[in-house]
Each structure stands twice: as structure tokens, then as C-alpha cells.
């Protein structure tokens, strides 16, 4: 599969709209969605329940058709493809699912062989291909087991191997780790990363967990009520989130929360009289915040309370979040100082 000559994108959503006719009227699931997914990238779409993630994903393999705009896979219009042309696109787009969707009556081997049998691959070529895939996902010891005898992580490995059977160039992941515990999630994400790197596979995944994007996605988009409200490189979005929805997803993943005694007293408007301003300070790269906070005190005479803090990594690039409080009367001056020195600030509220 070559990439689109016009765009270079492996997947391109062009002003895509999708509405459903229901008994209670028309439901607009997606509106004016434009997004390019670069070849070889891992792009994550995050959104709340009902935001339109599944509808968007299902358009890439033609399970849904857009009512407006177009979806191009390697430059080919999926929404308008029919018959053999649609089947050809689908062979190049693999998919994995939250609940694995394995056939209970087939072994690991049998599940992985199925798409090859359907595609009419000669039996003599199926066995070596399936054995290769089983080795790639590390299930050699489980090849003859049935799904009921597998752990969740092993089932998802079968799902991944099955999705790779027809040598797709694009892998769609529909909440593939949502049913797994955190440790198993990490091993499955690591496998997806290896596949992306080794095979140059483009991965488009949907999730409601920011941590999944942080751990695996090079690019991300935030979808809210059928529209993309923010998109870009994952690192940039994490460090400089613009939209309130992105910020609210982020607050759950940065690993820092306000101490309960402050969170319970936080007011959005600055109260009259003496109060403290609670500020989130975000810094990218190896920015040293300690000297900056110390200088805030020594140069401006602003006393800083550190409430919480954490440093995280996206790829190998660190970024950090600190929650601090300063006297509210000095808040604006303190924030301006930190911003001048390359840190990002956000007022979370005030406490009396
Ligand atoms: N076949 C359908 N018929 C009618 N409405 C639908 C259909 N499919 C999706 N919708 C509606 O479109 C909107 C987006 O749904 P979608 O399943 O894409 O969201 P989602 O972000 O994947 O949500 P979730 O995380 O809960 O799966 C919702 O309002 C949903 O009710």
C-alpha cells in the first residue's frame, strides 16, 4: 500500500461528517472531522463515551460510511469503495478489539489462520505464516489452546496476531487494553510499539485513557461531541493543552492531585481579603524548576508553597507538573515571571 500521492498520509479524514437516523431523529455522531495520520505513526484518539471514537475508527475499514466528506486509506476512498476494491482496502487494514472477538471453537492457531483461510491462501503457506505470527506475539506454548484457557493479555496477543495475518499496513485498535489490568496493558502496548517499529505499521487507536496515549502514541487527537477539538504531537498536547476537555483528561493522568484539605476549599473566583492562588506549573524538557521557584522568592519576594509534583516521560522526553500556591495578590506577577522563563502556568483556583 503506497501512501496518498496528494497528502502522504496513511489515513486521511477530510471534512468527515456522519449522522444516524434514529427513531427519535437524526443523531450527528461526527462533524467536520479532518485529520491526517502519517505513515508509520501511532495516532491515538481520545474522547468520552459517545464522543464518536468508534464511528471514526469504523470508517477506516468501511464498516461505517461518511455522510459528508471522505476517508482515504493510502489515498483510496474507503467510503465510496465497493466489492473487490473495498475488500482490497480491508485486507490492508487490521483491527483489534476490547473484548478480543476470538472464536471460542478454534485454538490460538486456528484463530490466527482464519483470515488467511478466508483470503484463500494455500494451506501450505498458511502454516509457516501462522507459526511466525505466534512467535512474534510470544504464544508458542499456547498454540493449541482454546481461548477459554488463555489470560486476557494472551487473548489480545491472539487478536493482534490475527489482525496481522494478512500483512496489513494499518492497524486499528478499539480500546484494546481497556479490559486488561495495568501490568498486562503495559506488555500489550509494548508489543504494539514493537510491531509499529519492526513492520512500519501505522496504528490508529481509540481510548478513553490519557495514559495509553502517553505510553504509546506519537500523535493524538481529542474528540468531543463529534468534533476534533485538539490534535498534534502527543508531547506538545501534554505540555501545552489548549482545550478544556484535554486539560480535564490530563488532570487524571499527570499523577498529581491537590491535597484533599485544599481541593475541598478551592474557589474558582478570587475571594475578597487575603487568599492564596493555586497554580499548576508545567515544564517541558529538563527545565529545572527548583532554581526558578527559589528565584521567585529571592528576586520578587514571593513565598512559594509546593503542594504536589511529578515528572513524567513521553517517549524519552520528560515533562513535569507542579502544583504550588502563592499569596493571591502576587499571583499575576509570579505567573508572568514563570512564563517569561519558559514555564507554563494555569490558575486552578483560590483558597482563603
Ligand atoms: N448505529 C447507530 N445508530 C444510531 N446512533 C449511533 C449509531 N452508532 C453510534 N451512534 C451515536 O453516535 C454517537 C457516537 O457514538 P460512538 O460509538 O462513535 O462513540 P464512542 O466515542 O465510541 O463512545 P464509546 O466510548 O461509548 O464507545 C453517539 O451519540 C451514539 O449514540
From TrEMBL:
InterPro entries linked to this entry: AAA+_ATPase, ABC_transporter-like_ATP-bd, ABC_transporter-like_CS, ACT-like_dom_sf, MetN_ABC, MetN_ABC_transporter-like, NIL_domain, P-loop_NTPase
Boundaries of every ABC transporter domain copy: 11-250
Record's keyword terms, sorted: Amino-acid transport, ATP-binding, Cell membrane, Membrane, Nucleotide-binding, Translocase, Transport
Domain of life according to the entry: Bacteria
GO cellular component, one term: plasma membrane
Molecular-function GO terms, alphabetical: ATP binding; ATP hydrolysis activity
CDD domains: ABC_MetN_methionine_transporter
GO biological process: amino acid transport
Keyword Cell membrane belongs to the record: yes
Membrane as UniProt keyword: yes
Pfam families, per the entry: ABC_tran, NIL
Family (UniProt): Belongs to the ABC transporter superfamily.
Database matches in PANTHER family: AMINO ACID IMPORT ATP-BINDING PROTEIN, METHIONINE IMPORT ATP-BINDING PROTEIN METN
Function of the protein: Part of the ABC transporter FtsEX involved in cellular division. Important for assembly or stability of the septal ring.
Protein name, UniProt field: Cell division ATP-binding protein FtsE
Lineage: Bacteria, Pseudomonadati, Pseudomonadota, Alphaproteobacteria, Rhodobacterales
Amino acid at each position: 500500500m503506497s501512501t496518498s500521492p496528494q497528502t502522504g498520509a496513511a489515513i486521511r479524514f477530510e471534512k468527515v461528517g456522519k449522522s444516524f437516523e434514529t427513531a427519535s431523529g437524526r443523531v450527528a455522531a461526527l462533524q467536520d472531522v479532518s485529520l491526517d495520520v502519517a505513515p508509520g505513526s501511532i495516532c491515538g484518539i481520545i474522547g468520552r463515551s459517545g464522543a464518536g471514537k468508534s464511528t471514526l475508527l469504523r470508517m477506516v475499514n468501511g464498516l461505517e460510511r461518511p455522510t459528508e466528506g471522505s476517508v482515504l486509506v493510502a489515498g483510496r476512498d474507503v467510503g465510496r469503495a465497493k466489492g473487490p476494491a473495498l475488500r482490497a482496502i480491508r485486507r490492508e487494514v487490521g483491527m483489534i478489539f476490547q473484548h478480543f472477538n476470538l472464536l471460542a471453537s478454534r485454538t490460538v492457531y486456528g484463530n490466527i489462520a482464519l483470515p488467511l483461510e478466508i483470503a484463500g491462501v494455500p494451506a501450505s503457506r498458511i502454516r509457516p505464516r501462522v507459526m511466525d505470527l505466534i512467535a512474534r506475539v510470544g504464544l508458542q506454548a499456547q498454540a493449541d489452546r482454546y481461548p477459554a484457557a488463555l489470560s486476557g493479555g494472551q487473548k489480545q496477543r491472539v487478536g493482534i496476531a490475527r489482525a496481522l495475518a494478512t500483512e496489513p499496513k494499518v492497524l486499528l485498535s478499539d480500546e484494546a487494553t481497556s479490559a486488561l489490568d495495568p501490568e498486562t496493558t503495559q506488555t500489550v502496548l509494548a508489543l504494539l510499539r514493537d510491531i509499529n517499529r519492526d513492520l512500519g505499521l501505522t496504528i490508529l487507536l481509540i481510548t478513553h485513557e490519557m495514559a495509553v496515549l502517553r505510553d504509546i502514541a506519537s500523535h493524538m487527537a481529542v474528540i468531543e461531541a463529534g468534533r476534533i477539538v485538539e490534535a498534534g504531537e502527543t508531547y506538545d498536547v501534554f505540555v501545552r493543552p489548549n482545550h478544556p476537555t484535554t486539560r480535564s483528561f490530563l488532570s487524571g493522568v499527570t499523577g498529581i492531585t491537590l491535597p484533599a484539605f485544599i481541593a475541598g476549599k478551592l474557589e474558582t473566583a478570587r475571594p475578597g481579603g487575603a487568599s492564596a492562588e493555586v497554580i499548576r506549573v508545567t515544564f517541558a524538557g529538563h527545565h529545572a524548576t527548583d532554581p526558578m521557584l527559589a528565584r521567585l522568592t529571592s528576586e520578587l519576594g514571593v513565598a512559594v508553597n509546593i503542594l504536589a509534583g511529578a515528572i513524567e516521560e513521553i517517549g524519552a522526553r520528560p515533562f513535569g507538573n507542579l502544583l504550588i500556591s502563592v499569596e493571591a495578590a502576587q499571583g499575576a506577577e509570579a505567573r508572568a515571571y514563570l512564563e517569561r522563563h519558559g514555564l507554563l502556568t494555569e490558575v486552578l483556583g483560590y483558597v482563603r
